[in-house]
Amino acid sequence: MRNAERLPASPDRFARARAARGGAAPRRVGASTVQLNLTARCNLACTHCHVESSPLRSETMDERCAARVVALLDASPGVRCLDLTGGAPELAPVFRPLVRAARERGLEVIDRCNLTVLLEPGQEDTARFLAEQGVRVVASLPCYEPENVDRQRGRSVFARSIEALRTLNELGYARPGSGLVLDLVFNPVDAQLPPAAPELEARYRSELRKRHGLEFDRLLVLTNMPIRRWADWLRRRGAYDEYLDLLEAAFNPDTLGRVMCRDLVSVSWDGSLYDCDFNQQLGMALGGAGRRTLWDLASFDELCDAPIATASHCLGCTANSGSGCGGTLL
Question: pTM for this one?
Fold first, then answer.
């Protein structure tokens, strides 16, 4: 890790919430999704970023590690999806080879895209590449109001995001019959829980159509995780404990059977394994055991009925209707 680890606060509020309201500690059912954090490098430096990505970061997955991922995919019939994230995953040299390898094997591929990267020098053909490969784009757009987006993500980010969305629509994304899926991601700008997903999605759809003539498939509503850069933002405002109180009060034991860590494995740029991308950023190894890497597995299918490392930040995935990389859980 680049900085000293910022481990979750003690006591373990997640364990305390489960003890008070019921619900067993989650365990794995497998690894149907392999999520690769390809790089910490990004063209943006957003205030909510739990990875602390920025243009100054250089950590990136190398060809040896990418080749090991592909070998394990061949040995893992239970894997159905390769989920590429970062940073801006498109900036990693192994991004396109991994996309092609996964699509050749019939896997769904997700690109977690910040949209503006599609306008960066050297990325002019990336949107077309994604369309040609049939990649599902999951794109960050934390609000349909330009002021809110620019406050969280940087000056002119909203306008550039709209331009990138228009390009994706022109290539067929979110168009009937195209098979090209474009989902948007919402996360709150301030220290609050997200609103109900159906109503917010309807509002997004109406506003983006009316103002910009844009279409998308689904809105994934996420809760901001109280770790790394977002935790720093909260602490600077004296709101960290208050935000944890908010999450703990909203704990919903019904979400425990659907949390993403039950069937997702997170792989860092150096090949280390974690239960989720949030645990990865806190240095909490897979299952809470010692460090394991891609070279310690013969197949991702080995990861079944195994324990999951949890701590206070897991309240972010279990508050209200729950939250995960696929949006709300309930």
Answer: 0.94
